[in-house]
Amino acid sequence: MKQTGDSKGALVLFSGGQDSATCLAWALDRFEHVETIGFSYGQRHSVELQVRPRVLDLLGDAFPTWRDRIGEDHLVDLSVLGQISETALTRGVEIEMHSNGLPNTFVPGRNLLFLSFSAAVAFRRGIKYLVTGVCETDYSGYPDCRDDTVKAMQIALNLGMEKRYVIHTPLMRIDKAGTWALAKRLGGDALVKIVRDETHTCYNGDREHRHAWGFGCGTCPACELRAQGWNSFSASSPFQA
């Protein structure tokens, strides 16, 4: 990978889901050059990785200004994380709550590793800004999604790499309805349609069942959050499909 040397560029942690796609649009609206990074870690909903190229293509087609800003996409193999994780996202087990109050969809260390590897790629690419879709307002209680965690990681990365990275978290203080609304503010109904129809959130990897809010099983925690957000958003904001 060549180094861009572009201080006005950003690297977006882009999984293929609703949140990261909205953050990608947020970055494209603000930065002159935007690269993306995704991680294959043995997730049972690996279909999210398959939708990434199409989302990128559709964003470029729908928004010509953004097309010129979309840079290289990086896909990193972190299968070792899946190998050491006993979670509902990396094993074919039923989703449930643990006695500690965390769901078994929590993959310990996942977002910490994602940010570390993203910073390593950004180091080589000469990119200062990292953008991630973590949120502590409307989430499953994952401790590595909290604002304090992200701020601590930023400090650790800056100290450990002698850089001055800035980690942006556009969704940190908004709920899923707010995420849909942010997409509409950024790109109108065209962007909402791309996010709704093309991104993937369902933990079970279901791309067969279509709902008003997109594809998914409709019963896993990720689908429930997405559906609730859509219902609140669509009730208050007219949407033309």
Automatic annotation (TrEMBL):
Binding-site list for ATP: F14, S15, G16, G17, Q18, D19, S20, A21, T22, C23, L24
Keywords: ATP-binding, Ligase, Metal-binding, Nucleotide-binding, Queuosine biosynthesis, Zinc
EC number: 6.3.4.20
Transmembrane segments: none
GO molecular function: ATP binding; ligase activity, forming carbon-nitrogen bonds; zinc ion binding
Binding site for Zn(2+): C202, C217, C220, C223
UniProt pathway: Purine metabolism; 7-cyano-7-deazaguanine biosynthesis
Leader sequence segment: none
Any Pfam family the entry gives: QueC
UniProt cofactor note: Binds 1 zinc ion per subunit.
Keyword Zinc part of the UniProt annotation: yes
Cofactors that this protein relies on: Zn(2+)
Cross-referenced InterPro entries: QueC, Rossmann-like_a/b/a_fold
Coiled coil (UniProt feature): none
Enzyme's top EC category: ligase
Reactions it catalyzes: 7-carboxy-7-carbaguanine + NH4(+) + 2 ATP = 7-cyano-7-carbaguanine + 2 AMP + 2 diphosphate + 2 H(+)
Function in brief: Catalyzes the ATP-dependent conversion of 7-carboxy-7-deazaguanine (CDG) to 7-cyano-7-deazaguanine (preQ(0)).
HAMAP family, alphabetized: QueC
NCBIfam families: 7-cyano-7-deazaguanine synthase QueC (TIGR00364)
Similarity comment: family membership: Belongs to the QueC family.
Protein name stated in the entry: 7-cyano-7-deazaguanine synthase
Source organism: Rhodoblastus acidophilus (Rhodopseudomonas acidophila)
Gene from which this protein is expressed: queC
